[in-house]
Amino acid sequence: MLRDAGAKNQSMLCVGLDPEPSRFPADLKGNANKIYDFCARIVDTTADLVNAFKPQIAYFAAHRAESQLERLMEHIRRVAPHVPIILDAKRGDIGSTAEQYAIEAFERYGADAVTLSPFMGFDSVAPYLKYQGKGAFLLCRTSNPGGDDLQNQRLSSVEGSPLLYEHVARLAQGPWNLNGQLGLVVGATYPAEIDRVRALAPTLPLLIPGVGAQGGDAIATVKAGLRANGPIIVNSSRAILYAASDAQFADAARREALKTREVLQQAAAQAGIA
Q1: Which of 15, 16, 58, 194 could form a disulfide with 237 if both were Cys (CB 3.0 to 4.6 A apart)?
Q2: 90 among known catalytic residues
Q3: H/E element holding 231?
Q4: Residues 264, 51: Cα–Cα separation, whole Å
């Protein structure tokens, strides 16, 4: 589904749906009841430009807007049935609790994939893999500065032992990837480490946040992560959602998405992968 969407829309761009009512245009500003309306407009104007949409569940839950998220998921499936929806939830729990979170993501919301924290081990991931055709993106090397606290630490004091994020990449490419359902989250702010993750996980899809407002280099990101058999999903949220603060916000979002998609395509051409 990811490859088909990328081919149809000629895109590596994912639009992250992180609605903040305080940043909405004047006629919607501050109104949490308009989250669906805002996000649906963004979806309508960018659906032909993306290889995925990524709603962030906390931005809905914080405003008691889960019902609006359900409506939005239905809307995306209706207007862009070929575009996968990644529910950005970063869940990480075990046993029956993980099973409930999987029900939430795949049955309640109908997501095509979900983001997960893998640091409680494989039994925190396994319940999601019971859903045939659904995907899970494991946090590997995230874009926040605090990622160094754990992800960039060596597993032991033995010289040459892997860093924690490298170990996660190996597990996801290998023994954990039972049905080819796993991908990895790697921040755009660390292109050298994207390259390292790609070397360890040559075929996994990489979800790469941090382009746009967080300052990630789109060209370096593509060169480090994209391979002929290794797709990337380059997420931009705030730079697209809040490209304008007036009634023409959706048109401005489309222009920003077009610009970002073009930059990514040019980078792929420069890398000889277009």
Answers
A1: 16
A2: yes
A3: none
A4: 12
Which DSSP state fits 163? B
Looking at the 3D structure of the chain, how many domains does it have? 1
Q: How far apart are CA 169 and CA 222, in angstroms?
A: 18
195 touches 224 (CB < 8 A): yes
User: Which residues of 83-231 form beta strands (DSSP E)?
Assistant: 86-91, 113-116, 135-141, 182-186, 206-208
The label of the residue with tokens 């033995």 reads 158
The Cα 210–Cα 202 span in angstroms is 21
**Spatial CA neighbour of 208 closest among 194, 198, 219:** 194
DSSP strand pairing (13-17 vs 232-236): parallel
Which two structure tokens, joined as six digits, stand for 192?
């050298």
Tell me the per-residue pLDDT of 163-175, one tens digit each, with 9 for 90 and over: 999 999 999 999 9
DSSP tag of 204: S
CA distances from 50 to 197, 207, 234 (A): 23, 13, 9
**CATH number of the domain where residue 59 is located:** 3.20.20.70
Contacts of 118-122 with C-beta under 8 Å, sequence gap 24+, read 118/92, 118/168, 118/171, 118/172, 119/92, 119/150, 120/92, 120/93, 120/94, 121/94, 122/171, 122/176
Task: Determine which helix (DSSP H) or strand (DSSP E) holds 16, and give its type and residue range.
Answer: strand 13-17
Residue 115: give the domain boundaries.
Answer: 2-270
pTM of the full structure:
0.95
Residue type, 19: P
Which entry of 29, 54, 90, 259 is annotated as an active-site residue? 90
For residue 179, how many other CB atoms are within 10 A of its CB? Answer: 12
Segment 198-249, tens digit of pLDDT: 999 999 999 999 775 544 587 888 999 999 899 999 999 999 999 999 999 9
